[in-house]
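Predict the holo structure. Ligand: 2-hydroxyethylsulfonic acid.
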Amino acid sequence: MSKIILITGGTSGFGKACALRFAKEGYDIIITGRRKERLDDLQKEIESVYSKKVLTLCFDVQKRKDVFAAIESIPAEWKKINVLMNNAGLAAGRDLFDEADLDDWDTMIDTNVKGLLYITKAVLPYLIEQGNGYIINIGSIAGKEVYERGNAYCASKFAVDAISKSLRIDLLRHKIRVTNISPGAAETEFSLVRFKGDEAKADSMYKGYKPLTADDIAELCYYCTSLPPHVCINELEVTCTAQANTYLTLKSPQ
Ligand code: NDP
Ligand code: 8X3
């Protein structure tokens, strides 16, 4: 059996690009997400293009029982998981603190923080068993520096940063590497989700400069895991060249 990576949020963006990239490098892939049709389509694509095995798990990471049931349901031969990529996540809304929607806050904390904790706890026994496990957490530059209207999203990504640091400490005895990847703006479905289907608003986030792509992130994720076992990239902050930080991006006039 090849090495196995479990990627949450494999139906789009970073997760999908990583599934394709790791399959190209010879991994068998476990992909999760809520949109079954997309999981099935990606499974077919990977199996036909790369001839690698794919297992799909359809569930919502916010639902604790469903997370543990889904991970428990993985067939024994698939439980030899080498890499866990905690990627499923979202921003919901971009509003001033006093105007923000409480349901948006719940969704972001339940997905980006609690979902990530549940998945990690459920998968950890299998990673530990492999003796050389690797965890990639997808944080954000929003988890390094707060910006206006970022409030709960930033808080959720600061939490991912803190969880990555504690995992590195608590799992030291298991020789598990933990990399917190903190990307800046990347063109995926992220903004479409954030702005609740408003395509014009979403597109405007990526106008006038060249943002990161999902393939850029996949390249970095694979690079980290391909280093020798004694080398661990703890933190990787990456922006496109036009972006200096969360509030300064050089854009050409539209
Ligand atoms: P996309 O919207 O393209 O992909 C998000 C993925 O997360 C989808 O596969 C979606 O699957 C999954 N997901 C969201 N909520 C849930 C849930 N409750 N249960 C299960 N799966 C879920 O966005 P990106 O690829 O850009 O985002 C991936 C990660 O990268 C996120 O954590 C995001 O915060 C982070 N990030 C994104 C940046 C960007 O600019 N794009 C920059 C920095 C970080 P489905 O809907 O099928 O459930
Ligand atoms: C996504 C990047 O800057 O929109 O995490 O928060 S940003």
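The two ends are 51 Å apart (CA to CA). Residues 4-238 form a domain with the Rossmann fold fold (CATH 3.40.50.720).
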